[in-house]
Amino acid sequence: MKVVTIVGARPQFIKAAMVSHAIVEHNRQGVNPPVVEEIIHTGQHYDENMSDIFLRQMHIPKPVVNLNTGSGSHGAMTGRMLEKIEREIVTRKPDWVLVYGDTNSTLAGALAAAKLHVPVAHVEAGLRSYNKRMPEEINRILTDHVSSLLLCPTHAAVANLANEGITRGVHHIGDVMYDAALLFGEIAERESTILRDLGLSPKEYLLATVHRAENTDDPARLQGILSAFSAMKERVVFPIHPRTRARLDMDRWESASSPISFIAPVPYLDMLQLEKHARVILTDSGGVQKEAYFHGVPCVTLRDETEWVETVATGWNQVAGASAQKIIAAVHHAQAGNTIDEYGQGRSSEQVLRFLFEMSCVVDRQIY
Known about the structure:
The protein is 46% helix and 15% strand. It is an alpha/beta fold.
């Protein structure tokens, strides 16, 4: 069986790493049929700390090609990806195209494959924010509707798909990011020196990430978030996304008296260490919301809604939006919640491989 995996952004590298490890183990054990995986990197994230270091740290097989699509508007970026991915699929003739999450790379990979009648497997299917102003929401809805295999991290995701009439090929497998948190969390404890490098003590700082367009492209929202960070009584460690840095007047927010410590995007192992030892995490990232729970750290979501509704229902996560007053109050009230049992037992990546084999017998065959 031949699988082409499409990746382009940090969260996808994390998820793809675990499935790649499962494929390597499957082949190492000599189980038939063997699996050939070819990874296509769209180049959506092209900063070294956003992509290349991730690939090295997680021992992901080297991509067979980097499409170098770079930055640009959503339409321009997705269009370039679609054209180049289509060409790769025709050349490589996979049995499956595997996509992850909700980025432009995900949508482009799914559309290119579906138009060539190559079955698409979507890992992290069924998530919904019900906010179509989010580009990610459009990407995930369209991807789900052209996929043959929809692998859901939560029961809510399965229900979301059923509400849209999608029931064939839908499976709850847990979250492959939980697999990664377990495996790489232990490695990070041994290898990462980020706490020492930044002079941090466990549970004596807040960790913040901001990158979604709804925040970075809205000056009022971005100002509300940064105002909240500036008002904190404890240090705020802020690995700043290139898009966010480009939107900020750094001279305004950087000062000796500010609690905000702006740092460059950090490699994955360092990020895990920062997450694990923070007192509270403030983020607009879906992946970081989950990782906060994986590490037992309360989270404040800097959006008006979240796809990860179970983190809110169990008390781990508060949705605060971009109001400085609400963010400050949420940090004050942040606390541990109850156990979430639907993310799996750390073997979700094996389930991806299992269903790829099972569904290979029933999907429509490809036409190139």
